[in-house]
Amino acid sequence: MKMKKVIAASLVAVMAMFTLAGCGSSSGSASGSSDSAASGKSYTIGISQFAEHGSLDNCRKGFLKGLADEGIKEGKNLKVDYQNAQADTGTASQISDSFVSQGVDMICAIATPTAQSAFNAAQSSNIPVIYTAVSDPVAAGFANEDGTNAGNITGSSDKLPVKEQLEMIRALMPDAKKIGIIYTTSETNSVSTIKEYKKLAPDYGFEIVDTGINTVADVDLAASNMVNQVDCISNLTDNTVVEALQTVLDKANAAGIPVFGSEIEQVKNGCVASMGIDYTALGEETGKMAAKILKGEATAQDTKYIEASKALLYVNTAAAGKLNMTLDSDYIKNAAETFDKIETN
Q1: Pairing between strand 153-157 and 306-307?
Q2: Per-residue pLDDT tens over the stretch 2-38
Q3: Can you say how many angstroms the Cα of residue 246 is from the centroid of all Cα atoms in its chain?
Q4: Do 115 and 148 belong to one domain?
Q5: CB within 8 A of 253, min separation 6: which ones?
Q6: Most buried in the list 7, 177, 232, 296, measured by CB within 10 Å?
Q7: What is the mean pLDDT of residues 72-100?
Q8: End-to-end alpha-carbon separation of the chain, Å?
Q9: Nearest-angstrom CA–CA distance, 269 and 265
Q10: Is residue 32 domain-resident?
């Protein structure tokens, strides 16, 4: 009988320990800790990237780093389903529909076409959409004219610093008159940027010669025709054209005219220079924004979209050398980064 009492007392003590431990866990969870690993929460994010090229890749890497900086880390409390549409809008729509069917906690859409697909697909759900590398959120339908969001969506804009780009081209090509631009007519971001180029170009003594294309296959002919009409080419962050950047560079180099890029990766790959933005940093800021929304500290609807910070000068002296182009040393000494070789993908 005495042995039974001892066993019973021991069981009571053990149960009390478990109860106290459970109370301690609940207390920690209710403390409002921002560390999702500590709170035991985990998340699934679907990342839809429109195409595979440097600037968009940098956005994705920066996005994941921004999340990690806020305690949401892949492999610990974050599962990432990464899909690439390979510059196909139909594929982008299928990817978005799949994410909604899976019931992911958030969709991260990289580039305007995938963001449009994600926004359309997610409107029938409660899934927030976070975009990045979208040049004009208003024109794309993600935000209203007053800057408020058009739904359960927010993100970051990579609006090109057109004014600074024109100033750079004028500084490096004092006698140039015509700038050529190839763009995809179905990409809202590119159409919007072309308008700004045409609006500002006369202030710097330039005329814009633009050619619209529909697919990557159109770039070869467009570039062949353009190099005979212009003094240089300014390349946008147009997803379709960037896919065929090497074709543009080959045609321009053969004609002896420079191509100016719009971000660091294009300069690494052979554009002479660029006044561009830091896509990794833009992705990081977007990731931190996404973390707050995932943790319930903010909503996508009420989080104002952000724009890229100041433009940075990138220069490739090897690309200029191929054209026997002399760069103003006083001007390029202020470059954020200078490359002396051309990278090939």
Answers
A1: parallel
A2: 433 333 444 334 333 333 333 333 333 333 334 444 4
A3: 21
A4: yes
A5: 270, 322, 323
A6: 232
A7: 97
A8: 81
A9: 6
A10: no
